[in-house]
Amino acid sequence: MRAALYLAAAIVLETIASSMLKVSDGFSVLFPSIIVVIGYLGAFLFLSLTLKSMSLSTAYATWSGAGTALTAMIGVTIFGEAVSLMKFGGLLLVIIGLVLLNTQHKAEKEKETSASK
Amino acid sequence: MGYLFLAASILFEVLSSTMLKLSNGFKRVVPVLVLVAGYGVSFYALSKTLQVLPLGIVYATWSGVGTILTVIIGVLLFKERINRKGILGIAVLLAGLVLMNLSK
Questions:
Q1: Domain enclosing residue A30, as ranges
Q2: Nearest chain B alpha carbon to A14
Q3: Residues A9-61: pLDDT tens digits?
Q4: Model-wide pTM > 0.90
Q5: Which of A15, A67, A113, B32 has the fewest CB atoms within 10 Å, counting from its CB?
Q6: Terminus-to-terminus CA distance in chain B, angstroms?
Q7: How far is the CA of A62 from the CAs of A10, A47, B13, B97, in angstroms?
Q8: Tally of domains within chain A
């Protein structure tokens, strides 16, 4: 369960960092630029803590799916980016695709670990 | 122009994550140096991309194309395999990216 909390922290930090990347305006504004570096380092740290007890595939699937969704939401709510059916449909497909791709070998790995027991 | 920076950002990110794997847990110096520089270039290019393209679309494209390229490199360099679920994932991802990038 702690792994899920670590993962949530990693996702939130990464989302903050990417938003600050935009605000930094090409790394020309100092404070957001500093937050970008701290944010990504923090996210990386929490991700490595997560991976101590969560499988890589589950972590990456959740991380990329949730991160993409959250960042798109921030784009719309905070940065006033466009909302359209096409964009939303595309976003949904991207998230599904990311989960499928990150978990493609999951069933095989689980069979291997139970077979070797 | 935005898409050129985005392409550069994605390529350097994939290069760096490949180096991460080759560094064998940060034990080999050259891959570590390349990956630090590579991530630096990648995030700089990403920040330039975000000056002209929307955050939501840029992030989805960066994640999506990056993941696909990483899987392909896994197959080409590290003898990893893609199964049917993986191919479906790539197809669905690409369809989603096309829709997002074509949307207003």
A1: 2-106
A2: B59
A3: 999 999 999 999 999 999 999 999 999 999 999 999 999 999 999 999 999 99
A4: yes
A5: A113
A6: 17
A7: 11, 11, 19, 18
A8: 1
B43, B68, B96: residue with CB nearest A91:
B96
- Record: contact B64-A98, CB cut-off 8 A: yes
Domain assignment present for A53: yes
Given this model, what pLDDT does residue B104 score?
67
Interface contacts (A, B; CB < 8 Å): 144
- For chain B, domain boundaries: 2-102
Domain contains A116: no
DSSP letters for chain B: -HHHHHHHHHHHHHHHHHHHHHTTTTTSHHHHHHHHHHHHHHHHHHHHHTTTS-HHHHHHHHHHHHHHHHHHHHHHHH-----HHHHHHHHHHHHHHHHHHH--
Cα separation, A79 vs B56, whole angstroms = 9
Look at residue A89 in the predicted model and tell me its pLDDT: 97
For residue B60, the chain A residues in CB contact (below 8 A) are 68, 71-72, 90-91, 94
Give the tokens for residue A101. 């791709």
Cβ contact A82–B104 (<8 Å): yes
Asked casually if ipTM beats, i.e. exceeds, 0.95, the reply is no
| Residues of chain A positioned with their CB less than 8 A from the CB of B50 | 21-22, 26
Phi, psi of A116 (to 5 degrees): -85, -5
